[in-house]
Amino acid sequence: MFDPHDATVRRFAAACRRRDSAALEAVLGHDAVATCDGGGLVPSPPGPVRGAAEVARLVIDVMGGRAGTELTVESVNGRAGLALRHVSRAVAVVAAETAGPQVTALWIVLDPAKLTGWHRG
Question: Could you tell me the pTM of the whole model?
Answer without folding.
Answer: 0.93
